[in-house]
Each structure stands twice: as C-alpha cells, then as structure tokens.
Amino acid sequence: MRGAVLVAIAAVVGNFVQGWDNATIAGSVLYIKREFNLQTQPTVEGLIVAMSLIGATVITTFSGSVADWLGRRPMLVISSVLYFLGGLVMLWAPNVYVLLLGRLLDGFGVGLAVTLVPLYISETAPTEIRGLLNTLPQFAGSAGMFLSYCMVFGMSLQDSPSWRLMLGILSIPSLAYFALAVFFLPESPRWLVSKGQMQEAKKVLQRLRGREDVTGEMALLVEGLGVGGETSIEEYIIGPDNELNDNQDHEVEKDQIKLYGAQEGLSWIAKPVRGQSTLGLSRHGSLANQNVPLMDPMVTLFGSVHEKLPETGSMRSMLFSNFGSMLSVAEHPGKNENWDEEAQDYGEHHISDASGAESDDNLRSPLLSRQGTNTDKDAVSRGANASFMHGHAGEEVGSMGIGGGWQLAYRKDEKAGGGLKRIYLREEGVPGSQRGSILSLPGADVPVDGECIHAAALVSQSVLRLEDVSGQSSIIEAVDKPSESAVKGPSWRDLLEPGVKHALIVGILIQILQQFSGINGVLYYTPQILEQAGVGVLLSNMGIGSDSSSFLISGVTTLLMLPSIGVAMKLMDVAGRRLLLLSTLPFLLLSLVILVLGNVINLGNTAHAVVSTISVVVYFCCFVMGFGPVPNILCAEIFPTRTRGLCIAICALVFWICDIIVTYSLPVMLSSIGLAGVFGIYAVVCAISWVFVFLKVPETKGMPLEVITEFFAVGAKQVAAKEQ
C-alpha cells in the first residue's frame, strides 16, 4: 500500500496550502487595515477575508462536472496554479482592489482542493486504509495553519511586519503542490475506467497496489460504472462440492459458484440458501437495530456487515479463511487429475508474495481461476486466467477478491435472456460455520461435520456482457475492453436514482449540521478565553505585544488539534466513521453547555477562565476527531463513480454556503442574543446531529466504494417499500 499512501500524502499538500492561507489572512488583516485605513470601513475589511470563501463557493458550483469531464488530476494541477497566481498577486497588490483579486484567485484554488482531494483519495486508496488516508486532509490543513501562525508570529515581532510577504509566501508551497500534481500524482483509476482508458487504469492500479495482478479490482471498477438497477440480497453456503452435491437438488445446482482449493483434488462450491435468513447481513439488515423507531433501513443494512464478524476475531478470516489460497479452475469437478502440482505450488507462492503488502486485517488471497488444464505459470501469476467456467449445469461462473473481505463473482442469469449477474460475496460469522458444522440452516441440508461457511451476497445486473466473457474469453480480457457504461457521462437524471438521491440527502444534511455545530464560533471566541485565562498577561510580561500574543495563542490552539487528528487517523478504519461521530458529538455538546453555563453563572474570573479553557480544548480535540473529517470522508465514499464528482460538488457547495452564513451571522447573533445564546444554539445543533447520525448515517469502513453504492441501492428500495 506504499504507493497509495505516498500519492495521498502528495495530494493533501493542497489542503496544507489551504490551511496556511486561512491562518495567514487572519494574521495579516491587522496590518492591511492599518495600511489602507480600513478601521472605519468594516465592510471592505470583511470582504478581504470573505473573498476567498466567495471564490471557493463560485468555483465549486461547476468543479464536480468539470472534474468528471476533464479528470481529477488536471483539476488538482489547476488548483495549484490558482494558489500560485493568487500568492503572486497578493505579494504585489498595490491597492485593495488588486488584493481582492488575489484573494479571489486564492479562493478558487481553495475550492478545488477542498472539494476534489477527498474524492481523489477515496478513488485511489485501498479499502483497508481509505479512512486513514482521507483523514490526512484534516491533518495537513491543521499543520498548515500551525506553521503559518508560527511564521506570522515571527514576522509580527519585527518593527514593520510586511503583510504582502505574509500572503505572498503562499506561492512557495503552491510550487511544491504544482510539481507533485504534475510529475507524481497519477490520474484516478476509477475516472480512467469511466472514460474507457482501461490499460492506463490498470497501470495506475498496479503502481498504487504494488503488484501486477489487479484483475479483481479492475473488474470492480468496471462494475462501479453502473447507476441504479435492481439489487437483491441472497445467501450462500460455501463448502466442499462433494458434500453439497450429495444433498442438493438440480434446481440449486443451476445457481452454484464453483471454486477450487489450493490443495490437490479439493474443490468448493457456493449454493443459495432458501427460506428464512439467519445472517447478520439479511434482507432486513442488522438484527440489533431492526426495532429502533425511525431507524433508517440503510443504517441497519450497513450495520449488519460489521456486527457479526467471524469467530476468530480477525478480518483476515473473512472469506474462505480455512481454505488457503483459493483457485477457481475452469474444468468439471471430476477432472482433478489435470491439476498440475507445479503450477499449484507456484500459484500459492505468487499469491502469498503479491499480497504481502496488504493489511493483516483483511483477506490476503484473492480468488483466481485457471483456464481449462492450462498449467502455464505466467498465466497463473498474472491472473489472466481468471476465466469463467462450466459447472454441473453448464453455467459460466468466476470469482475474484476485491478487498475488505469481499469477493466478486459472476453467474449467468437465466431469467434475463442469458444476461450476466455480478455477486459481491462476504462471509458471515455464524456460530458453527468455522471448522465444524452449519447447524439448522434453513434451506441447506448439509452434513454436520463439513467445513462450510455461510456467505451473504449482493446480486445485481453486471455492466459486462455475457458475450464478452463466454467461450475462451477471460474476465481480465473483458474488463480490458471499454464498457458501454464508460460512454455515458454523468447526468442530472442519475441524481434521481433512489440510491443516489438517498446518499445525496445524507451528504448534504451532514455538511449543514457540521457547519452549524459551532466550530466557527469557538474559533472566534478562543483568543478571548485564553486571554481571560491569563495567557495574554504572561506573554506581555515576556515582552510580547498584543498582536503577537494573539497569533501565538492561535498557533498553540491549532497545535493541540494535531495529536487528536492522529488518533482519528488510527481509529477511522478500526472504530469506524459512525462510531467516531457518535462518540465525539456528546463531548462537543457537553463543552458547549459548559461554555453557556460559564457565561450565565458567575464563577469568578479564575474559575471561569480555567473551565472555559478546558471546554475549548476538549471541543477542538473532539471536533477534529469526528465532525471535522468524517463528513468529507462520507461524501467521498457514498456516491457511484459516474455521479461522484457531481454529487460531491453539490455537498461542497452546501458546505461553503453554510460557512458563509455562519461566519457572517456570528457577529449579528453575538450582539443580539449574546455569547451564551450563540453557544446554546450550537449545543442544540450538536444534539440534533447525534440523533441524525444515529438514525440516518451508515458505517462505511472496510467496504469497497462500489459495494457501498450497492448497499445504498438496496437500502433505498427498503425505504420505499417501508413508506408504501
């Protein structure tokens, strides 16, 4: 995963520059006011600060559609150029109007970076560490703010600080951002697939994953091009075919998925379970949340993926954990005499080596297949033999690992005129299904002493055509061809698909709640709180002026955020996005309530300062662990490939509009209802946010992006059925 990590680090330089700019303008505006005599012109002063927000809002309105047309990487390059030009214009600015132009250009760069970097990281990151890498923008932005405050503080100690130099230095990190975007960052493989550039997408994936065989993920990316369509949840028992074949009728045989184990003569078969579900991932979702009033079925479906893990407790044991490296063989069950021992040993060795860089918490051995009796070692190692095969019923199937404990399989759809169905498989941690028996599974009369597992499946229509993968063609050959879906670009009509519409509502609402949860108000109030705590007097005794003190205080406040963001990065893919939100929002609420009480009750200067300081620190640390990074992470995960750029731009536009509203309403609210009233409103919003997250926001950790969108399609269908 080293390649994906380095690419993510390079991409978040744009967020570093954004954080740098935010802190720099907060410091330099004091000196801009003095030079241009703006003390009596608060509107112009506010416009200088707000012009960046205006620019970000304007460019966000079309950034998504342009990114879908032009690509993610070119837009990041444009962002770096706009940062650089804005820095140069502000360095030169002879008057207020030129300064406003520089701020506008800078805002354009900010808007592109904030909108597209999370999207880019989500599309390039492995499933296992996608949350960690998508927390990097938050860390980079805070690091940029801290270093910028340090610079402004150092320059403020001079006799005549230059605000032009403060703002113009922005061009230096912008040059580094430009160089990385042009010479290091690859294009998003999902965008390349959406444009039919399959070979280039494959090369990028090989670079990002550090291995040659990316067949499974390439097939996954092709399948992700579809929007809408019917998706159903099915269940399979997977076990030795000799055991299942002895006890299943011909009707079940037609739906089987044939797999061969790495051991000579050992084969496995997947067959559907009939009757009432016993799985966590069921047609009704999580058993734990089914009876919660107003609970969105979407949340219960996603929750069912995470609440019932295999008994071993390790994600490594997800699918086929007891079976070693699984190989699907394109031959009939009785033809094991053609299994070549040398090729088998080589295949096992190659799979082990190729997956060594993957997370220990996930499946290491992707499912591959071999064509006929071909024992060519290169074919085994490349995965070019990941072909369909004929089972007992003459049905063509194949299977591949796609990360996060999921497998991608295919089967012929007899009901759709010979079409092709794709199946996302995941093992369910049903007691007795590991190294023992499957007890009392409805619809599955299997021996009690067999090594079988119970797997849930998301089944929907494939974007691949049956004729592309029939006969001697292989999966890898099929995904190397541009899909018909790649010709179709994003359209506004796609936003009306139930799954997309549901995801968009979740994304928009969580962005609104984040902005109204009080972060801007607490940032505004922090210097005053720390001043009351006696920090200003202490710094004054050290010979540091009031302006420099405010910069140093702001820098220290930002520094406190960095360790908390580091904790969030560690937990994002372990505890999950939803749990982090549910765990940190109560602390935001408590901090705001204490700040309200501290301004209503007379605690004395010292006690008030201490209590307020602790509350602010707790608020900041908890915000950057949850409500800071998670909304952007979710918005970059929950939309289909074809509409992702458009949808994330809509969410970002809502973010910037709410940011402007909160920023400009704060002074008015302070003068009308006071600080206690403002923080009281923010506390109410935090309480509403917790309820919203609990009822409406699903957990997306450890799931491929394409599987997440499938779940939204299923969940939207259940919501519609529930409302009827």
Automatic annotation (TrEMBL):
Residues 7-701 form the Major facilitator superfamily (MFS) profile domain. It is a multi-pass membrane protein. SUPFAM superfamilies: MFS general substrate transporter (SSF103473). Pfam families: Sugar_tr. The keyword Transmembrane applies. The keyword Secreted does not apply. Its main location: membrane. Keywords: Membrane, Transmembrane, Transmembrane helix, Transport. InterPro entries: MFS_dom (IPR020846), MFS_sugar_transport-like (IPR005828), MFS_trans_sf (IPR036259), Myo-inositol_Transporter (IPR050814), Sugar/inositol_transpt (IPR003663), Sugar_transporter_CS (IPR005829). Residues 352-379 are annotated as: Disordered. The chain crosses the membrane at residues 43-63, 75-94, 100-121, 133-157, 163-185, 551-572, 579-601, 607-634, 646-666, 672-695. It is found in: Membrane. Belongs to the major facilitator superfamily. Sugar transporter (TC 2.A.1.1) family. This is Monosaccharide-sensing protein 2.
